[in-house]
Amino acid sequence: MSLSPVPTETSATGRRPTLPAGLALTGAAITFTSLYLAAGALMPLLVAYKEQWGLPAALLTLAFAVFAIGFLAAILTLGSLSDHVGRRPVLMGALIIQLASNVMFLVAPGIGWVIAGRVVQGFATGAATTAFTAALVELAPPNRKDWARSSAASA
Predict the structure, then answer these.
(1) Which of 24, 54, 63, 69 could serve as 19's disulfide partner, Cβ 3.0–4.6 Å?
(2) How many Å apart are CA 130 and CA 148, to the nearest integer?
(3) Is the CB of residue 115 less than 8 Å from the CB of residue 68?
(4) What is the dihedral of CA 84, 31, 151, 97, to 10 degrees?
(5) What does 8-75 look like in DSSP terms, one character per residue?
(6) Kind and range of the H or E element at 152?
(7) Averaged pLDDT for residues 18-35
(8) How many C-beta atoms surround the C-beta of residue 117 within 10 A?
(9) How far apart are the C-alpha atoms of 107 and 114, rounded to whole Å?
């Protein structure tokens, strides 16, 4: 399955026009980077929540650490989902879940919501990571496919 660009219109041949390869690769790489930035963007709020709620350091550490639980759960359970249903549905779902986790984090009435939001955030990031990695390899220029595969394997 490949990550095909969003169609603008269908031609007389029935084929949808596509983005130039370099533009599609750049867009996917920027979106992938943005996903990881979004996963950490709200972390300064933890310090504010710690002061506001009088949290012990152990709970703050737990709120940071549970991200890995969601991330690993997604990698292990959804790793090849985009191979079966397509890159785009998996990526759109992961981005929507990422947005929902950020909302959970922002409106959290207590540390339980923050911890749940971090697990959900890890899950969204893990689901997107496998699909984005495959998409970046597919979108790499033919002369850079080997490099893209080796870079993806080391990530």
Answers:
(1) 24
(2) 14
(3) no
(4) -50
(5) S---TTSPPP---HHHHHHHHHHHHHHHHHHHHHTTHHHHHHHHHHT--HHHHHHHHHHHHHHHHHHH
(6) helix 145-154
(7) 78
(8) 24
(9) 9
pLDDT at position 137? 81
CA diameter of the chain: 65
At residue 111, φ and ψ (nearest 5 deg) are -65, -30
Please name the residue that has the structure tokens 């504010």. Answer: 48
d(CA 23, CA 29): 10
Q: Average of pLDDT values for 18-36?
A: 78
Q: Between the CA of residue 52 and those of 26, 47, 48, 71, what are the distances in Å?
A: 41, 9, 6, 28
